[in-house]
Every structure is written in C-alpha cells, then in structure tokens.
Amino acid sequence: MRAWRVSVVAALLFALALGGAQAQVPAPQRGGTLRVGITQEILNLDPHVATAFSSIQVLDLVYESLLRLNPRTLELEPNLAQSWTVSADGLEYTFTLRRDATFHDGSAVDASDVKYTIDRILDPNTKSPQASFLAPVKEVTVVSPFVVKITLKQLTASFLSLLAATTRGIVPLNFEEKVGDPKVKTLGSGPYQLAEFSSSAVRLVRYDRYWRKDAQGTRLPYADSVVYRVIPDAATLRAALRAGELDLIIGFGVDVTATKALAGVPDLRIHSVPDLSYSLLGIQHERPPFSDVRVRQALSLAVDRKQLIDVVYSGRGAVAGPIPPTLREWQPLPASQLPNYRPDAARSRELLAQAGHPRGISIKMMPIPTVPDAVQIAQVLREQLARAGVTVEIEQVDFATFLARWRGSQFDTFVSLNGGAIDPDIHLYRHIHSTGSTNVFKFRDAGVDRLLDQARNTVDPARRRELYAQAQRAIAERVPFLFLAYADLFAVTRAPVQGFVLSSTRSMAPLAETWMSR
Amino acid sequence: MDEPLTVQRYLLQRLLLLGPVLFVVSALVFSLVHLIPGDPAQVLLGFENTDPEQLERLRRDLGLDRPVYVQYGRWLSRVLRGDLGTSARTGRPVIGLVREALPYTLELATYALVLALALALPLGTLAGTTRSRLADAAMQLLTLLGLSLPAFWVGAMLILLFSVHLRWFPVLTFPSFTQAPLASLWSFFLPALTLATSNAAAITRMVRASLVAVRHEEYIKVARAKGLREGLVVRRHMLKNALIPVVTLVGIIAGYLLGGSIVVEQVFAIPGVGRMGLLAIVQRDYPVLQAVVLLVTVAFVLVNLAVDLFYVYLDPRIRYG
Lengths: 518, 321
Hints:
The structure holds 2 protein chains of 2 kinds. Chain A has 15 helices and 20 strands. Chain A has helices at 2-22, 53-59, 111-122, 159-163, 175-179, 234-242, 256-262, 293-302, 305-313, 345-354, 374-386, 399-407, 424-432, 446-456, 461-478, and strands at 33-38, 67-69, 76-78, 81-86, 92-97, 137-144, 147-152, 192-198, 201-206, 225-230, 248-250, 268-274, 278-283, 317-318, 361-367, 390-394, 413-418, 481-494, 497-498, 515-516. In chain A, helix 8 (293-302) runs antiparallel to helix 10 and helix 13 (424-432) packs antiparallel against helix 14. The two termini of chain A are 44 Å apart. By secondary structure, chain B is mostly helical. Chain B has helices spanning 7-35, 40-45, 52-61, 68-80, 94-129, 133-148, 151-165, 181-187, 189-214, 218-225, 230-258, 262-267, 273-282, 286-314. Chain B is globular. Chain B starts with 6 loop residues before the first helix and ends in a 7-residue tail after the last helix.
C-alpha cells in the first residue's frame, strides 16, 4: 500500500514536471513512421517464451503488464491494473483492472485473461523461462470480471516489480487458439500491433483503440507505425542513420565508440543513461583455487575498476557493487565503503600467498562473444591481474559454446553482462543465492543466503534497506563474482525525433510517446 | 569400343550422382555440428535460468535426446518427403525461411557474377594481349589490390562514400527484382560490386594468364598469317581457347556465391542465405543449417554441371567419358 502511494505521488509530480517542460517544446505531432535500427536478429515473438533482447524490444510496444515502470524514474506505476491492495499477511494481492483496455481483437482485458496469463507462464508445457520469476505464486483467482486475486506461497517483497515486465505481459484467454502461432503472430493490448514480421524487419502499426493518453488528453501512440530493422554491422547501422534511413539506433553496437564516431554529425542527438545491467567476472567456486575466499578477494583487489571503465568505456560508467547506483532508493553503497574494492596488488599477492599460492596462479577467462566489449574487458583484466601474479589465458568460444559452458558451470572465469532489475531481490537473488536460478558460479554462503532470504520476505522498505546494506557488504566480502562496471547505455536519434526517453531498463515502451516533427 | 557417351547420358549420370553427394555432405555436416558443444535447446532458454528439467523437456520436444544417427535418420526421412522441418530457433518452418532468404542471395550472386565478368573479361583480355609492359604491370597491381582488400572494408567504404556522403544509393532498401527490377538493380549495386571486386580480380588474372599461354600457339600464327584482323584473332582464336580454365574458375566462384556471401550480407544487412547459415551455426539451429547445406551443395553441383556442358560449346573436341 505504501509503495503504491509513493508511486502515485511520484507519478503526479512527474506529470506536473512533464506539463511544465512541454510549455517550451512544440506540441507532439501525430503520424509518420519511426524507423528503429538494432543489431540483433528478432526471433520468437511469444512474450512468455522469447529470450532474445531484440524480440523483447519489439514486444515492449505490443504487450502490456499489470504494472509498468516509469521509464525515467523507474517507479512502479499502474498499467493494466489501475489499483491494488495487499492483505495484512502480505500474501494476497488483489488487482482492480482498468475497464478501457482492450486487446487488438477488440475484446476487453479482464480478470480471466490475467489468470490465464499467469497460469500459462507457470505451465511446464509453455516452457517459459519466466516461470522461475513467478515461482512464489500459489494461485490466481478471478474475483469479478475486473478484479483478480493472486495468492503467494511465501512473502515476496519484489512481487509487484516482478509483474512489471513485458515478458510477463497479459495475453487473452485461450491465447494460443486465438493467435494461431504466437511465435510469429501477436495479440496484445499495447499501443502497437504487428503488421509484418521477418527475422530482419518488423513493422508495427498503431492500435487505434489503445487506452493511454498523454498529459493533454491526446490518445497515444503518436506515430502511425514503428519499423524495426536488423543491421548486424555497427558501422552500417551508423551509416544508415546518417543517410537518413533510420530515425533511432539502439542496442548492442550503439556504444561509446559508436557515439564518438557520430559526435560531430549535425542533426543527430545522442542519449545516454546509466545502465542497470553490469559487466562481471564470473568465477566457478567449486574449482580450486577459487573455492578459497582469499583467492577471490585477491582477484577483486587486483582489479582496478576505474581504470577498466576508462579504457573500455572511455570513462562512461560507474564503479559499483551489488546494487546499481541508479537505484538510489535502495541506497547502493559507494565503492569506497565496499570491502575488496580499492585496488591493491601487494595485498592481493599477500592473500594469494596465504592461500598457498606464493608464485601466483594461472586461470582461464572466457569472454561472451555477443557483447562487443567483453573481449576488451578480458584483455584489461589480464594486464591488471598480471600485477598480482595471476596469469590469465583468454579462451574465445562461440555463442552456443559459451551458453553450454555457462549453463554447465564449465569455466574458471568468464566475462559477461548480467541484466539488472529495479528491485534488489530480482537483481541479486537468482545469481547469488545458493538456490538461485542462474547461480552458475556454484556460490554457496549461508550468511549471504540468510540475508537475501530475509530481505526477500521483508515487506517494510526501511527494514529491507537495512538488510540490503548488510547484504552488499557481505557480498563484497565473500566475492561470489566480481561486479565490474555499470556502463552507460546509449541511443542516437535524428533531429526530427522528439520525446524519446532512453530508459535504464532498456524498455522500448517510451516509443509510444515519441513523435516526428515535420 | 564403347560408344562415346552422349550429352544426355552424361547429364543423367551426373544428376544421379547428386543423390549420394547430398547424402554424404549432409551426414558429414550433421555429425560435425553435433560434435561441437551447445545445442538449440540451450540457446532457446538463453540466460534466464539453469533449470535442468526445463532443458530436458525442451530437448525432448526438439528430439535432441535421441542419438545423433536417429536424429539424422528422422531428418532424412522428413526431407525425402519434402519437409525441411522447423527452425529450432524461431519455431518457423525452414522452407519459409529459405523462401525469404533465397531471392536476396540469388540476385546478389547473379549480379556480382555479371559485374565480375563485365570487369574481368575486358581487363584480362587487355592485359593478356597488350605489348605494353606498363599496362600489364598496372593491371597486375590493380588485380592484386582487388584480391587483397577485404570485402568488409570495401563494403564499408562504398557505403560511406556513395550512400552517406553522395547519397546516390540507399543503405537498407533491397526491393525484390521481380517487383521493381530497376530499383532493385540500383540498390543491390554496392553489395554486388563489393562481392564482384575480388572475384573480378581473380578472373582477370586467369584470363590474362590463359591468353599469354595461347599467344604463341601455332594456330594463332596461322590465323595472323591468313591476314585476319587482330580483334578477330583475339576473339575467335585466342579467347575461345583461353576461356576453358576461366570457365572452370567462374563455375567454382558461382557455386560459392550461391551459398551466400556471409561478409557482404552482414555488412549490407541483407537477410540472405549466407547470414541465415551463419546464424544457424552460431545458434545451433540444426534444421536451418542442414537446409542451407543442401541448398549450397545442390547449387554447387548444378553450376559445375552447367560448366561441364559449356566446355563442349567452347571446344567441340572435348568428349564426356
């Protein structure tokens, strides 16, 4: 309840701020096509099954979840659910749905659709990778046509945040029969509906009966259509933007190097925002010598994160620990207060010697091939770790091999990017808790487990913050893996593109409020 | 004593050989990709979770829990019934994906080959017949450049110059040839030129070398002695004889081009067969990869058959047997 009131106040303030800002800028114009360039192929369009980031970038405009994240403030806001209450024991969430939301076939979004959606995600036959997120759900009950109750098995403080995701988007009852093949066809309630789909291009057209309106009461979205084009080569992507064939470029390949190359070009605007995702050095704890915490601490002390950010990201990023600096609400500890964060090669060597490795150690490091910076990060780490007597051999593998070895915990160390989340529970638990769904590191620490479990089951925000302050220190102390950097995220638009908001969550939902000036 | 094989019988024999060739190639590729780590079920689940049960369910659905030879047998029996299967990665029928990608590659390959020949035949002839050492050296240097400049660089430079600065050519639009032939030829020009560059250089060198080889043959002297004009000597007597190794080379090049050029398709964002094959390898999409392999093999065999037939036209002394 309290979190909800806070977010409503925030939303009101935000609306006021937006109203004030819009006094100076021209009124949004309707019509036109937004042409978005991305570098990765668009695969499956089933919101509950898709894992490719490019698929989700498209689905952000087609499907809607019960709640949404404000793209600027990252606050939870009502979406398909216009209000909700939580029972005193914190186990029952009752959502009242808005009555003006409809699916693209014209039918209303109602409680039976919400029940169907959650049941579908949890059904093993759907094989939804999202099922693990909704594991706390015990059952979903339709109370009345527009009221739905979700009962949880255990207290889950992050539950509302879990519902605010395109990948948990609401689909109509009997979705699969209605849509035919959800991998290539869509039936959502979002601002755009699918018109054409191939793996290299997707065209979305405006859904005229979309419910959301802007501050002036004008129906959204503004643009008639949105076209996503897949351009695998980053240089070609930039060229197409400069040639006026794209209006917006975003995603892998649109990084600090790319934006530098475009810096002097007139009529382009570079957007940037701190990312919630972070680069990491993953460590396999069951393999010696990493089972010894002193060795992991030695690795952390040998790494100069600031220098890494300067070299790889041209300084555009933040040194940080377990909680992203963007989530100020959760009081992320600055690097200066985290143990094992101040670079100290001498201390690092000392710890290695204490752990029985006076002549240093040799380790293998596997960078993920799909993240352009990963190899460079591995190279910088190799140089930095050498100072502490750690010899690094970089193993370059292809994507499927990386995935297989990641999944099977067959690595010494790897360099990759972990997706972030607005709630610290979603952000940390799955990677760090001994039962976490993606704890490929085999990190097991009873103390850290206890803190993460307590924080998960504590609903009071002040108490939760306290627990996460302890958890951050404990994690930095025990070193499940190295949090390296939260780099800045970039997008570039052409001058006629107005109102685009680049969100730390990488959501493309703000395109509904983006327009082209003519 | 055997009667020389007729063209028809030769053709039949070669086409019958296509079956075993396809079988061997597809079995080889099938077992090779299964040897490397990773499978489509893992790729489909991505980094979201590591639940082994979910992986097993997905593997069962995709038939990946069976031994490789069983998987191959199933695939083969489906293909023999004309069903290329379903892409593991996208869940879409492979035939549809091939139908989407093939027109791009066909047009690009044909276009590039025509451009390469249009450049290589005159240049090679010039280099092979000129008496100016300077012209010959210049041509050698030019072709050396053409061979050594990487396609991704040539492509990027062409885009920067002609699309970004001069704005003559679009970067991303590739209309279909059947719907808008002129616009299509216009937009495919830069990728086709990129793809043609190195091939044109190779063919030019081959034409030159072959012409130099026949230049001093007796029959050329005879032709000149008959008082034929130089142009006619080159065209009718030198080129026709010199072209045989050239045609062989062009056949091989055409086979490669029809398999799709990964680099050029990547640089120009053309969703053709090469890119499809690359993604299929990277993401272990076995059914798609097998379809691409079949396609490339068939194209290779057929093009080389056409080349063999073309020899007869060039040199009627050639017999099949």
